[in-house]
Write a structure and sequence with these properties.
The protein is an alpha/beta fold and about 300 residues long. It contains 13 helices and six strands. The chain folds into two domains: about 90 residues, Helicase, Ruva Protein, domain 3, CATH 1.10.8; about 170 residues, P-loop containing nucleotide triphosphate hydrolases (Rossmann fold). Strands 2-3-4-1-5-6 form a six-stranded mixed beta sheet, sandwiched between helices. Helix 6 links the parallel strand 3 and strand 4.
Length: about 300
């Protein structure tokens, strides 16, 4: 109903990866550039963490796109890494890249086959292999250790395999518990909720690409502010709540969205996050390992 009421050509808030609706904030553009460079240069391991709906998968897709278009890169993705053991993990990676599976079904044979394929891609074809792993918080400590071992495959100037792990905040906790793994992190990106102005710009971007033609926003200033607060600044929840708010207004014969529409829409959502009162920080990134190490530990290692 709201598509017709607001003069739209299509639904602007579908939960899909349609590139026409991709909105890039300054902080997101910075994160995409850093992530793409890290992977393309063969620096090893990148990690993206953030709450549910913060845009981790969207960031991965944005970083993956230029690599897929460039013949210098061999790109694979694992979207569900809930493997039972190391053998399944290796099979998943080999299959994602399209490498030939070894005749021998042992873990050692799988590792050797993967190593040979990565060397062949790098030396014979001049291609950098890049592996995207989403929902990485489901990886067990044993599987994280298996991935760490793959980072040992390298040339003089780069790793044979670039890996990016994206997951919810518990992924960071799991990595902190494994210093040998977290020491390998070349880039850590922590996704934050959108600021109020970023949220408003994202909603407007989606509406314009769906055919919205009025010069003013359909959301009043107060409604837009409430939308941002009730969505917790999270992009996915913003789009869901914006859609339901516009539906609420349309059902009541209005062509503008007020605070009461946002409140009514929010009442129908399950698991509403804590309401934001202050604009959150933008994406923060870092390149040092997750655990901080006192200066005297460096001295002990050197001695």
């Amino acid at each position: 109903m709201f598509v017709e009421t607001f003069g739209l050509r299509r639904d602007p808030f579908l939960d899909t990866a349609d590139p026409a609706f991709y909105y890039e904030t300054i902080s997101c553009a910075h994160a995409k550039r850093r992530l793409t460079e890290c992977l393309a240069q063969g620096r090893g391991l990148a990690v993206v963490v953030g709450p549910i709906g913060a845009g981790k998968t969207t960031l991965l897709n944005a970083a993956q796109e230029p690599l897929l278009e460039d013949q210098r890169f061999l790109v694979a993705a694992v979207l569900d890494p809930s493997f039972a053991d190391e053998a399944e993990l290796l099979d998943g990676i080999i299959g994602a890249f399209g490498f030939d599976a070894p005749a021998d079904s042992s873990v050692r044979a799988r590792k050797d086959a993967l190593k040979r394929a990565l060397f062949s891609a790098a030396i014979d074809d001049g291609r950098q292999a890049v592996l995207f792993v989403d929902e990485a918080q489901t990886l067990s400590p044993q599987l994280l250790e298996s991935l760490r071992g793959l980072l040992n495959y390298q040339l003089d100037d780069r790793k044979l395999l670039s890996i990016v792990l994206a997951g919810q905040p518990e992924l960071a906790a799991a990595l902190r518990a494994q210093p040998n793994f977290s020491d390998r992190i070349a880039l850590l990106l922590q996704l934050r909720p959108l600021t109020e102005s970023e949220a408003a710009a994202m909603i407007d971007h989606r509406l314009r690409h769906a055919g919205y033609a009025r010069p003013d926003s359909p959301f009043s200033a107060a409604a837009a502010a409430q939308l941002w607060r009730r969505a917790g600044g999270l992009p996915r929840r913003l789009t869901v709540l914006a859609r339901e708010s516009m539906e609420e207004a349309a059902q009541n014969g209005r062509t503008s969205v007020g605070e009461s529409d946002v409140a009514a829409a929010a009442a129908n959502l399950i698991g509403e996050p804590a309401v934001l009162e202050n604009p959150p920080a933008a994406i923060a990134d870092r390149q040092e390992p997750l655990p901080t190490m006192p200066w005297w530990m460096f001295w002990r290692r050197a001695s």
